[in-house]
């Protein structure tokens, strides 16, 4: 795999370095996207002693070259994956007041809907928004 990775890096117009090969190889081996800190920890544990700053620079280079893709959901840290494995979708429902709803029932309903369309539900985040004219109807 290392030769394929090196060819990808070269084809993208980047200089082939040990750090770039190590980071891109690790991302290619993973089933799920990872944060920069997770990548750093995996590399450190596998005796590839790169500094965190180096990993950040390599990630920036690989992303700019189009070899990896950044996913950022909500307020969490950005996660990185290969472009062809990116398949995330984001659904935002904005409502002024969800206090009248049963959150567990809402989550269960969303999971059922996503299952019907073969979409993996990764994260649900409820945020309280300022009162607006949205959803201000009374439920009877």
From TrEMBL:
Protein name from the UniProt record: Ferric uptake regulation protein
Biological process annotations from GO: negative regulation of DNA-templated transcription; regulation of secondary metabolite biosynthetic process
Superkingdom field: Bacteria
UniProt organism field: Acinetobacter stercoris
A single GO molecular function term of this UniProt record: DNA-binding transcription factor activity
Pfam families named among the record's database cross-references: FUR (PF01475)
